[in-house]
Amino acid sequence: MSIITANEAEQEAIVTAAKLIMAAVTTAPKARGISTIQSALIQGEEKEHLAQAMDNHGLQKASGDI
Questions:
Q1: pTM check: above 0.85
Q2: Is residue 22 included in any domain, yes or no?
Q3: Residue 16 — left, alpha, or beta (φ > 0 → left; ψ -120 to 50 → alpha)?
């Protein structure tokens, strides 16, 4: 049996909760039975890249560049 640290358990719980939320969104009642919502779970390097792009976009918007 392996040892799981509290930090590892917390991260695993967060991912599990995110997956459950994504499943709930996908299976929720839809207008006319058509699903228009898509979801994705982004982790690791991809998450950091997206966060940086969002920061940059916010700074450009605040400065009036866009």
A1: no
A2: yes
A3: alpha
